[in-house]
Write a structure and sequence with these properties.
The chain is mainly β. It has one domain (3-347). It contains no helices and 25 strands. Strands 1, 19, 21, 24 and 25 form a 5-stranded mixed β-sheet that branches. It is globular. Residues 1-6 and 9-17 have low confidence and may be disordered.
Length: 348
């Protein structure tokens, strides 16, 4: 039976300037010199954006772009691009976003956006196939009250079984422009972000610019079509993808306890980082339930395949349905979602 894998992460034309809210990209190699790259781009208003190839070895591209989701008040809109590239060689290549600007008043001083993806297609000695990137996604804006301790375990799954690590982007490597990390966050290599209570002077939006990499669990050899080989040890990254989004530090909340002002997930909501399998052409149904006793749950916000369908059977209850196509056979598709509540014109 053909299966596609859906990954869950539970966290509570180019748009005009000063509207960027981040991006994320993943890729899947196919046979006959074809690689499928899926990326999200986030703006205030729905907009499209294509990645540039700074060299001449990225092949020819066909591109389809669709809207994924948008926040009801107009804070953000996310679109998904599916870029299919036909390449004449399995040599690695790099793709870039490089323009401007992020939304106004970013607290860590980021103005122009830049993101880099390293696509590694050489055959691996351990799997006999081309490398697949780590799989991840995230909503454009993650909110946290300034007086609450909050931990965010980002989705980090690798179809090849590699170890996945995260780090902040490096300005000297040209991975962002610049790569100044948010002072209010700490990052573990396991792709977990921690926010500790901070003063009200630190409230506002921060650009989070991460790089996710996959590391082999044993020494492997990568072989190019022309016979050239390179060795990768457990300390050598194979590929890299960007994870960029906005962390918005909000004013204090009266209680940091989940289920009061901050929404809390309830059964049958899948667990954080759950792996769900579904046959091709069969609909997968994800049931989500949340409560917030002192605020009003207003909407479900999600990031994932553009053709997810959402229904709301009751207050605080949502159903996401997704049906993988034959073209997605054997692939992994990440999805993350948050439930947003509001009280007295404040969002949680």
């Amino acid at each position: 039976m053909s299966l596609s894998l859906l990954l869950l992460l539970l966290l509570v034309s180019i748009s005009q300037a000063s509207h960027f809210l981040g991006t994320v990209m993943t890729y899947y190699p196919k046979n006959t010199g074809r690689v499928v790259l899926r990326y999200k781009v986030n703006f205030h208003s729905c907009g499209n954006l294509s990645w540039n190839c700074p060299s001449n070895n990225c092949g020819t591209e066909s591109l389809v772009q669709n809207k994924v989701d948008e926040e009801s008040s107009g804070e953000w809109c996310q679109t998904e691009g599916k870029s299919t590239r036909l390449v004449s060689s399995n040599a690695p290549f790099q793709l870039e976003l490089n323009s401007g600007n992020w939304i106004n008043n970013i607290r860590n001083g980021i103005v122009r956006w830049k993101a880099v993806t390293l696509v590694e297609l050489r055959n691996r000695s351990d799997t006999g196939k081309a490398n697949t990137s780590p799989q991840t996604t995230i909503v454009p804006v993650v909110r946290v009250p300034s007086n609450c301790q909050r931990d965010f375990n980002l989705l980090a799954f690798d179809p090849d079984g590699d170890e996945v690590k995260c780090r902040y982007g490096n300005t000297l490597l040209g991975e962002c422009n610049p790569c100044t990390p948010p002072s209010v966050l700490s990052l573990a290599s396991s792709c977990s972000l921690s926010f500790s209570p901070t003063s009200r002077s630190n409230e506002g939006p921060y650009a989070v610019q991460l790089v996710m990499e996959d590391f082999p669990r044993q020494t492997i050899t990568l072989t190019q079509n022309n016979g050239l080989q390179v060795v990768k040890t457990t300390n050598d990254a194979i590929s890299k993808i960007p994870i960029q989004f906005v962390l918005w530090v909000d004013p204090p909340v009266l209680s940091c306890t989940e289920g009061l002002y901050l929404p809390r997930f309830l059964p049958p909501t899948p667990a954080n980082r759950a792996l769900l399998y579904t046959p091709v052409n069969q609909s997968l149904e994800i049931n989500i339930k949340a409560e917030a006793n002192l605020s009003i749950i207003s909407e479900l916000l999600y990031s994932g395949p553009y053709n997810i369908q959402e229904t709301t059977p009751a207050a605080g209850e949502y159903v996401l349905r997704w049906t993988p196509s034959q073209d997605e056979d054997g692939e992994s598709h990440p999805i993350c979602f948050v439930v947003q509540a509001n009280s007295r014109q404040k969002n949680y």
